Fold this protein.
Amino acid sequence: MKRAELEHLLRAASAITERRDVLVLGSQAILGTYDEDELPNAAIMSVEADLAFLDDPDQSMSDLVDGILGEDSQFHRTHGFYGQGVSISVATLPNGWFERIVIIEGRNTSPGRGLCLDPHDLVIAKLIAHREKDLEFATALLEAGLIQAQTLAQRLILTTSAAPIQVERVRTWLTRHADRWA
């Protein structure tokens, strides 16, 4: 996905939900901090962006995004990328994550704006999820020097909502990778 495509999704999601703020939780939140030409291929290979809303207790906004902008929708078939409506609860994030949000806002996102996770908070959520694609994403960003293992270790400490087994798994992963990119 390219930043212009993410901006298109943000514009569309904001318009259909009548919400200004659209939270980008998945890997494409990295486009809030870096342009696609600065990122390794593993960071931009997805054709979907996970979109959530801060005040959506019944997930009606997320469901609306899924129905209109989601996988196999007319939007997806027309543009080749899509938005997946998700609940904010799908991500396990470090405490204070909202204060570190990166905002994408401008004429290409109007009437909305994107609230993108900080790269280190994003990678912690990916490492907690611990899927193969998430580990590849994190490794690619470390190899490219776009995130630092030491900052990840600090953010892991702030991730108090993670289960102990998840924290230990991330700590082990960081130990294996910290020496290579310290």
Residues 24 and 51 are 5 Å apart (CA to CA). The chain has a mean pLDDT of 94.
